[in-house]
Design goal:
- By secondary structure, the chain is an all-alpha fold.
- It contains five helices and no strands.
């Protein structure tokens, strides 16, 4: 097993620099949870029922994990994904969360303007 070549250049870099990988992973996961908490905040401002907010947020989180390039691709270190997979996963996460935040803010603006 030790003589086998390492699959990706990213995994090779992660194995050579494990502490930088841990720090980078902590930063990426913190930013990910911060962006998702913004989605939840917009959801909580639009909906007033707590049970419904929990249900919708869990469905959104599971959806983000089940995407072809989901959240699991970039929050797990030492897995062996290459840069392409991780960047696509970050792009899909950012676009889904950005769209949800934009739709939620538009709904808040329309509701506050016309109600």
């Amino acid at each position: 097993m030790a003589d086998q070549p390492i699959g990706s250049s990213l995994l090779r870099w992660e194995l050579i620099h494990p502490y930088l990988t841990y720090v980078g992973t902590i930063i990426v996961v913190s930013v990910t949870f911060g962006i998702f908490s913004t989605v939840l905040h917009v959801l909580a401002l639009n909906l007033k029922r707590t049970g419904l907010i929990y249900l919708i947020s869990m469905v959104i989180w599971l959806l983000l994990f089940s995407l072809p390039h989901g959240v699991a691709y970039f929050i797990q270190p030492f897995v062996g994904y290459n840069w392409h997979n991780r960047l696509l996963a970050m792009l899909s996460f950012g676009s889904v969360c950005g769209i949800l935040i934009l739709i939620g803010n538009l709904a808040l603006n329309c509701r506050s303007r016309y109600w």
